[in-house]
């Protein structure tokens, strides 16, 4: 890793097996015939954020625990293909993996294999400090063992972001991330009152910016104490899979932030990138490029 690194992505490397199902929830049956095929590809939350940042022109370095297994090889190949620097620390329990059931409308149900890790897993402090010292920003995923890395990263003074995904506002696992990061992303899917939750994150923690994405209803942006509704953007093609939309939003928002754009503009970038991600089939790992992002963000809304 060189001094040009702009963003470190910590955690969230893994492999998904994609199954296109006829509907969600999937009714019980002895078997289903999957005509579209069952595909396994590299790409979980950290991989998608790193890919999104890289496609937008930011020099990105990803760090996580990986197994010496075929799934780890897929993750390594994804990073090599896209020119993303990767620090792969050994994980004897194996590379993280999940099964995603994807419905015809693009909704998904993810089944995460929690056996690919141990409670005492840790990122070496020296590695964390070396990575943070050379970066403008660190994006911390909520995968284990990233929570234990937060105090060390906070000591370095590097700005931090995180994505709480579908936090319900109550689960204590997410709280260290929510109250330590400077920029917090989350989905509003499990929130009864998104405005109340984003304000509580800002009040209890360090966040200067909190964004709750709400799919077709746009997003809630809390910046400098002011809540703004960000409109959704029409996808440029039919929606086929919502997987990775939140990661794409976060990557594009961070691109705007590191480019010096105001929060509203950053969120507009995020809405464009998230809409694009919904048009990418689940079997592929892809993200919007910088030229297309800027062109779509500049286009008049209809």
UniProtKB/TrEMBL annotation:
This protein's source sits in the domain of life called Bacteria
Which Pfam families has this protein been placed in?
A: PfkB (PF00294)
Q: Which InterPro entries match?
A: Carboh/pur_kinase_PfkB_CS, PfkB_dom, Ribokinase-like
Keyword NAD applies: no
* UniProt domain Carbohydrate kinase PfkB: residue ranges: 185-284
A GO molecular function annotation here is: kinase activity
**Protein name, please?**
PfkB family carbohydrate kinase
Organism of origin: Streptomyces sp. 900105245
